[in-house]
Amino acid sequence: MKGFSAHNRDAQNAAEARYAGAARFLDISIKSANETEYHLLASHDLALISDADWEKYTTETIEVRKMTYAYRAAILRDEGGPEHAAPPTDDPQPR
User: Fold this and answer.
1) 42 and 49 in contact (C-beta within 8 Å)?
2) Angle (deg, nearest 10), helices 51-75 and 4-45
3) Tens-digit pLDDT profile for residues 9-54
4) Residue 35 neighbours by CB under 8 Å, 6+ apart
5) Cβ distance 32 to 68 under 8 Å?
6) What is the C-alpha to C-alpha distance for residues 17 and 80, in angstroms, rounded to an integer?
7) Which end of the chain has fewer CB within 10 Å, C or N?
């Protein structure tokens, strides 16, 4: 029979794995937002969308990416430790 500390350690490991999985999913979401921003820029450069639409959708994409990043950082800071929550590397301004 396991002792209390072994059960506690098992529960902690399971929680860390759960939060790591959530953070990995949010990483994928952030990368998808980066890709969406690129496709918006390419569409704008090819004159497939108007200046107004490009600006609107790019601004919205950046805002979603910022919120997703903040959520990921909070999960890692609160449950995975501060060493996991690095600052964003993306330039949040539309080009």
Assistant:
1) no
2) 170
3) 555 555 556 678 888 999 999 999 999 999 999 999 999 999 999 9
4) none
5) no
6) 9
7) N
| Contact between 80 and 20 (Cβ < 8 Å) | yes
Query: Considering only CA atoms, which of 64, 42, 59, 43 is closest in space to residue 93?
Result: 59
DSSP label of 86: P
Tell me the pLDDT tens digit for each residue of 44-53.
999 999 999 9
Contacts of 71 (CB under 8 A, 6+ apart): 26
2 touches 62 (CB < 8 A): no
Decide: helix, strand or coil at residue 57: helix
Among the listed ranges 26-35, 60-69, 78-87, which one has the minimum average pLDDT value?
Answer: 78-87
